[in-house]
Amino acid sequence: MSLNIIVLAKQVPDTRNVGKDAMKEDGTINRAALPAIFNPEDLNALEQALQLKDAHPGSKITLVTMGLPRSAEMVRECLYRGGDDGVVLTDRPLGGADTLATSYSLAQTIRHLPKYDIIIGGRQAIDGDTAQVGPQIAEKLGLPQVTYAEKIEVSDGIATVKRRIERGFETVQCPLPLVVTVNGSADACRPRNARLIQKYKYAVTLSEKAALTPERQALVEGREYLQIREWGVKEIEADPEQIGLKGSPTKVKTVVNVVFQAKESKRIEGSNDAEVESLVKELIADHIIG
Amino acid sequence: MTDKNNLIVYCEYDEGRIADVSLELLTKGRTLATRLGVKLEAVVLGDKLEGIENQIFPYGVDVVYKMQDARLFPYTSLPHSSAIINLFREIQPQICLMGATTIGRDLGPRVSSCLHSGLTADCTSLEIGDHTDPVTKQEYHDLLYQIRPAFGGNIVATIVNPEHRPQMATVREGVMKKEIFREDYRGEVVDLDVEKYVDPASYVVKIIDREVEKSKINIKNSPIIVAGGYGVGSKENFQLIFDLADVLGGEVGASRAAVDAGFVEHDRQVGQTGVTVRPKLYIACGISGQIQHVAGMNESSIIVSINSDPNAPINDIADYVITGNLEDIIPKLIKYYKKNSK
User: Fold this and answer.
1) CA pair distance B200, A286, nearest whole angstrom
2) pLDDT tens readout for residues B85-107
3) Mean pLDDT rounded to a whole number for chain A
4) Which residue in A145, A162, A289 has the most chain B C-beta atoms within 10 A of its own C-beta, making it the best mutation to test that interface?
5) ∠B248-B251-B257 over CA atoms, to 5°?
6) In this structure, are residues B49 and B66 in contact, taking their beta carbons and an 8 Å threshold?
């Protein structure tokens, strides 16, 4: 049985490598200095989808992403690795959304896609680390959910999912359709495929197409697989009350940069045995150790 | 107008015990409820709940809601969310706290989505305060300030939910302190009929296998922690960290970079995405000191940093900085400790 798989993914600033150049002089973050990347756990999710496709030939993977127009890069990444299709949800009024408004917008998008068997996303995105959007989409679509997944298998319309919980594992079974969020401990995503890069490198959204040369535009127009869908509020028929800042129950009251109180440190040269020994003696005398 | 509805803590239950993280939240919840002048409530779902309230009441809990059914343990998403959603519709809590565990982070978003209430994940601090909407200038009194790191730990944001209830937050284990309010404190027990709260169709996910080890790593309560970072270099080199911890009678911790690199298991991770620790002594070995790590250990009494980079950021918050290679310094520390301790 072939499967219709939706993968949820987000383009995020690479918060894991916030170097000194990413901090402005006033101590705030210079977002522009951070590269935009495929959220790491969403890559684990994509790999699970690709493995399902390997096991169920004829399956179709559609990537859904919400963000800036440049999120079309996410769809191309998915195509380069073996995905089939994608939708970029991008529209000004969707901006400023908290997890609840985001899950509403994505659920609306999914409702406008053909019938699916399984929705797979990363556990959480590294810019917010909330892990909320997956379960919230499941609730909105009235689907069961399995979070913290490491391995997904499907047979006879039933998903068997191994999930990592504190100090152990759980294997659960659930009939399709369902939402699964994938943990970073799952298999890493396979690399891009050279043949697929050749095939899809000119895949663009409508707004990207406008910037191409006339020849390229003609190429894209002649080949449907190079046309990435770009949807907005209108296409997903979103309730304006439930999207963006307005649809977000949580409000950011204040944001402060993290600064830790520096201490006056005692410096010891590791090669100086006498100093190292006197530190150990000091810690023993103070009953810190021993 | 002030909200007189109560504050409730979802208590995680595991084979006869309430999870530490839930008791920590009850401790915090007691303070917040007192500040608001409302009751502290707890809800617990599980298979064998006889007498479970006796573990809960001493934290100053006024009402314990119990729902007992064999199908409610181990936890699965839909029955628990169905129960909590229906209970909350009835009792209308103003605040709900949950552990930021694989349970709370699975349950919380589902409940918040259904009730259309705001949820803030992984809070590091919770306070009560007022809020003025910057646009409408409307004033709100006694909201829950949900304070959490964001953007990889580089900023701390205060989040409020002005219009929607309950105001929901999850908190990781070890972030709040667990403290008994009064040993003899007693409240009311309310037994809930599972059939009334849980939709039978929600038992759709079947657990076919479950392997959970008893917690053997307990870095949260260890007075001495020797932690290794990416600078340790390899899984093999991490043995040095274990050796030092062993000699000093401490536990081994690690930075996220070391865990991500596969040097040690995730249970040892210290920081915003791991455990928050406050030991008597924290020895940071080859840890550069990213904010997200420092936030989980900077309340340690004494911090020793061992690093080949004299300018590693962690050195700024260390009491002692030893500059040099771990391979040289750790064996020396072991040698001098054995020589000087009795």
Assistant:
1) 61
2) 999 999 999 999 999 999 999 99
3) 93
4) A289
5) 125
6) yes
Is B110 in contact with B75 (CB distance < 8 Å)?
no
User: A144: cis peptide before it, omega within 30°?
Assistant: no
For helices A273-285 and B326-340, the axis angle rounded to 10 degrees is: 50
What is the pLDDT confidence band of residue A23, given thresholds at 50, 70 and 90? low
Asked if B74 and A170 touch (Cβ cutoff 8 Å), the reply is yes
Q: What is the DSSP string of A17-68?
A: G--GGGB-TTS-B-GGGSPEEE-HHHHHHHHHHHHHHHHSTT-EEEEEEESS
| B144 vs A: CB within 8 A | no
* Residue B1, pLDDT above cutoff 60: no
Longest dimension (CA), chain A: 80
Predicted confidence at residue A25, as pLDDT, reads 61
Q: What is the distance in angstroms between the Cα of B76 and the nearest Cα belonging to chain A?
A: 9
Query: Which residues sit opposite B150 in a β-bridge?
Result: B155
User: What's this model's pTM, rounded to 2 decimal places?
Assistant: 0.89
What value of ipTM does the predicted structure carry? 0.90
Q: At what angle do helices B104-115 and A133-141 cross, to 10 degrees?
A: 50
Q: Which residues of B touch A175 (CB under 8 A)?
A: 204
Name the residue of chain B whose CA is nearest to A260's CA: B317
Query: Shortest CB distance from B205 goes to which of A13, A172, A271?
Result: A172
Distance from CA of B289 to the nearest CA of A (A): 11
B57-62: average pLDDT: 98
Q: Testing the interface with B: which of A37, A104, A124, A167 to mutate, by most B Cβ within 10 A?
A: A167
Stretch B254-273: mean pLDDT: 89
Average the pLDDT over B259-275 and give the result.
Answer: 88
For the CA atoms of B227, B228, B230, B236, what is the dihedral angle to 10 degrees?
Answer: -150
Do B121 and A130 make contact, defined as CB atoms within 8 angstroms? yes
CB-based contact A131 B298, cutoff 8 Å: no
Closest C-alpha to A99, from A125, A60, A77? A125
Is B208's CB within 8 Å of A171's CB? yes
| Cβ of residue B226 closer than 8 Å to a chain A Cβ | no
Q: What's the CA gap between B160 and B167, in Å, rounded?
A: 8
> CA geometry: angle at A14 spanning A8 and A16, to 5°?
115
Query: Which residues is B95 bridged to in the sheet?
Result: B7, B167
Asked if the Cβ–Cβ distance from B324 to A258 is below 8 Å, we say no
Chain B interface, mutation test: which of A126, A132, A181, A269, most B Cβ atoms within 10 Å? A132
Place of tokens 């990213």: B290
Mean pLDDT of A158-162: 98
State the pLDDT at residue B4: 87
pLDDT band at B2, cuts 50/70/90?
low
- pLDDT per position as a tens digit, A2-20: 999 999 999 999 877 666 5
Angle among Cα B60, B62, B64 to the nearest 5 degrees reads 105
Nearest residue in A to B152, CA atom: A15
Nearest chain A residue (CA) to B213 = A167
Report the pLDDT value the prediction gives residue A28, as an integer from 0 to 100.
58
